[in-house]
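User: what does the whole thing look like in 3D?
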Amino acid sequence: MKIYKATLISIGDELLIGQTVNTNASWMAAKLNDIGVQVKEVLTISDKAADIKNAMERATKQSDVVLLTGGLGPTKDDITKKTLAEYFSTELVLNEEILEILKGYYAKRNRPLLQSTAELAYMPANCKVVFNKKGTAAGMWWDENNTITVSMPGVPYEMKTMMEERVLPRLQKQFKLPAIVHKTLMCAGLGESIIAEKIKSVEEKLPEHVKLAYLPNLGILRLRLSGFGSNKAALEKEIEGYSGEISVLLTNYHYGFSEITLQETLQNTFIEKGWKLALAESCTGGEIAAHIVKIPGSSAYFKGGVVAYDYDIKESMLQVDHQLLQSEGAVNKQVVEKMAQNVLTKMQADFSIAVSGIAGPEGGSDEKPVGTVWIAVASKEKVEAKKLLFPLDRQKNILLSTNYALYYLWRFVNS
Amino acid sequence: MKIYKATLISIGDELLIGQTVNTNASWMAAKLNDIGVQVKEVLTISDKAADIKNAMERATKQSDVVLLTGGLGPTKDDITKKTLAEYFSTELVLNEEILEILKGYYAKRNRPLLQSTAELAYMPANCKVVFNKKGTAAGMWWDENNTITVSMPGVPYEMKTMMEERVLPRLQKQFKLPAIVHKTLMCAGLGESIIAEKIKSVEEKLPEHVKLAYLPNLGILRLRLSGFGSNKAALEKEIEGYSGEISVLLTNYHYGFSEITLQETLQNTFIEKGWKLALAESCTGGEIAAHIVKIPGSSAYFKGGVVAYDYDIKESMLQVDHQLLQSEGAVNKQVVEKMAQNVLTKMQADFSIAVSGIAGPEGGSDEKPVGTVWIAVASKEKVEAKKLLFPLDRQKNILLSTNYALYYLWRFVNS
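Assistant: Here's the predicted 3D structure for the full assembly of 830 residues, as structure tokens:
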């Protein structure tokens, strides 16, 4: 079976002086990989005509598809369109449809259509136009000398919409790519190696055409099944079967599919059940609340939280016993349980989380080293607490604590 | 004056399947730019010998220095060292010094030195070894055919230490690079175009050899002065002069130098003065607290906060008047002022911030569109509030609100 190869050309001086990280290339690479196109190389170059032409020559030789991003805007350093027109030996001609879109765009915003902007309506005569639903600079598609060349804007959401709605579907069709089915199982609460041990029986029997990837990130593990074949329906059924088996083996750890976060899963459950949530955070310092509030619609179930960073606040706002704090410190079972129970009562919530720990780099001791974190979850009926020890730096320990706290809540409400 | 050119070669399949974003390349590009070396191109390639050799040929032709990262570990897909040895027509020979370092490293950790790991001590015979202070895989330096080639590990902090302590200083010396002086002024509270207007008089008189870059990010603007010349001391004095002039023109907006954040500046001031801080957050949902707690040592001044997301919590925890919330809603001057004053009193702090707004995408009205945010700052003596309208998506509106809130506090305590 032929393997189709892609070269990505990322154009822009901002990439070469380190002002912008090339996230476009990694996003595009992942998407191409998803449809079975292999990225051979990413070339990051400046906004210079000679460099663009040189990169085009290299890319065309080594790949079936060349995807360029950047340099399509209306400013004078945006030279990609003009350069590609020269490369494909053609002229820029007026595209009436784009001109009408531009007129409409500016009329709606009560702004005049400047000549520099109107130039966006002039397109290379021999390309197919890829319309831009999210912005003003259209893309271009050439199919010449056995290579497909597509030029897109560098603005991430404009490029992403173009890729998903136009470029990827067309490539799949034109290359007659094999059916590919992906399914991602989102897991938490266990390390990669223990998960691998638990699902060994499934992993060992996976056929050659089904791959399993482990993608861990700060307490969350994405398990990604990918199947390749000719019959999409059969493949979907097959992947579904393995996914089901893995899910059973990971009961209590597998919390959802696709790219769903723990806080989205929790939000769905809480809203469905009409439950309310409250938080009491010490070492995570508001990070759990911030994670929850990031999701639109969280106001429907999230009552709020107390960031009880100082001992005083644990006492005055959460009624943690002064003597207890003085004798045992803030990082222990009794303190987090009290924090969880009292914030639940005070905020009249159905469930609560409390976290207290030593994020580092200072504040550790032999008995309670940096990374020691206590997490409690409570309902009106009961409270549970766990102790963890995280090995990373301050910021990562905070994020690990946040993900583990959300995971314990998920497990608590689902048990 | 000769312009020295660099090509970066980033090696690793994880980069080409989109699993890892190439942050190494942008970091290195910024650092090279800082010493006056221009990055001509970044080539991102797979762990294949043929691709590495092909990239080396291209890079060597077009640049004075080639920096490679990745593929130096002990696993079997790490083939960079072996491939470069072939490219430079040499053999791998035992380096006793590295072997001793490896022995010590593993003895300290009570782990055996495996053969696969011991292979890290075999280095190409004709390279200079660049020792790795942060890990086990050493770097390599060749100076052949008028090109410097340096191969480094792909682990970011290992590579960064090598770059800063060894590679960049050696390049500056060997290339006899001009003196370069950078100075960054951190600003907040005003948009880029208004700042440009305010400092026009300085910007217009900057000589050819002094550049000013505007680097905006969600309410924070970095203004970066870069001077190029032969006499470093004179250049420093010159840049210092322009920096001073800009600073005066941006009084109340220029809050610090280098890459300092608002919360670090505040932390320094609060600890110095012995002040304490409390927060009352609605739409920012804990993000301001999380920003503060990210900084080690914040427990010395940060008492805590209330995330008062629900109306109930604004009433029960912060004593905002029920009637006021019912008649005016939560997004107005009176509510944020009450939140700020009451959290200050309850937490016995010296200063406080309160934020209430509509982050979006839902919840807006004609009178209070999405992006409307009220921010209050209070001390025992007074309270001030400002209304803002942010135009971005939910997550960015939250981050903008956070940065503006920290800015208003900075301005409030410094007035």
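In plain terms: Chain A touches chain B through 72 residues (CB under 8 Å). The radius of gyration of chain A is 27 Å.
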